[in-house]
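Thread: quick sanity check before group meeting

JM: Hey all, I'm pulling together slides for Thursday and realized we never actually wrote out the predicted structure for the chain we discussed last week. Dropping the sequence here so it's in one place. If anyone has concerns about the input, flag it before I start.
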Amino acid sequence: MRQLFKILIFLSFASIMAFCIPKKQSEPDPDSTLDYQSIFTIKKCYLINNNSLVLNGQKPLVELRKMWSNEKTTTFVMVDSIYFNSIPLKITQSPYYTICNSDTISQNTLPPFIWRAANLSEFPTFTISISDSIPRLSSYNTLPDSISASKTSLIYIEGANASDVEIIIEKSNGELCWAIYRPINNSTAMVYTPNNLAVLNTATLIINFKKGFYKTIDEKEVFFSLIASYSKQIKIVP
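JM (edit): ok, ran it. Output follows.
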């Protein structure tokens, strides 16, 4: 779990640094070690409308970055070809990370999910098949229509095949109001919101139901993740 939080910290940091002017990287010293952060994700999205589910897309996403132990920022990884279920992903590089994604995957794609990395300059070539199912939230129809700004509100989470849950409340413009990330047992959790939220007529409650595992490939740890994301429009009342 410590490794997973490390990845989340790197993701947040890289997102901020992407808007900064890149600086010339210093040469690593002889005792410096190279660390890779590699995340292969398949994410399925749902909208909750009148307590009914509407499937809203399924996308693969690969995030690659590296950092010498004597550096303070991550850098991109040189890659040539990455495929999801035989479909080539679009590769985009910034000074701080490499992103590979596609908008062409059928939202009804079922396991096995097959990742293939080939002809890579500084990353191992591999093919891996993931037969596990994407997590499923069964309590979506009990999620609140409104939560209190000044009192704690209970959000009950129940489903299947998840080991972690991320709960987010966003303003209508996407600005973050509150978020919590925690491991869960048996895909079940009871989470209380804080008692100091702003009153909002329109907000979005997002439940990210997650499961993942590490696999060592050519001495590099690669994280494979399955995410089901559920979004519901709510109000934050006094």
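AS: nice. Residues 1-26 have pLDDT under 50 and may be disordered. Residues 2-18+33-237 form one domain.
JM: adding both to the slides.
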